[in-house]
Amino acid sequence: MNKTRLSLRDWAALAEIVAAVAVIFSLIYLGAEVRQNTNAIQGVTYQGIVDASGEYLLTIAGDSALADIMARASEDPAVLSPGEFWRYFSIGRVFWRNMENAYLQHGRGVLGEEEWDVYARIICTSKSAFESTWDWHVDTLNPGFRSFVESC
Fold this sequence. Notes:
mainly alpha
């Protein structure tokens, strides 16, 4: 019977191979975990944006006085009393901030293309409806977002 003993050099080479395989498996596992984490973050972010939009709309729909202010202001904001104007201004600020958040999350890669397409259409469609509020808020918004809105 021929018993071959491994030399120290052979053991070292075998250890390097095992270590390389372990590194490869670790990288595959890490990649899967990062992908899963990214998907979870994207889902939570999108849900947060949807929740903020829903809260915005329900606030207006649930308050008949605010809904009336929005309806009258959409025709001519000059007809509003100072208190009504402040409410209209504030709801406009919330709208533009919500849309800016969607824009920024898309820019960070957290909001996917399909989700962003929905918000891009909302922004561009709403620009004309909120044209009177745009000038009041434009200086407080992200420069990239301002450029996007102005290009609609």
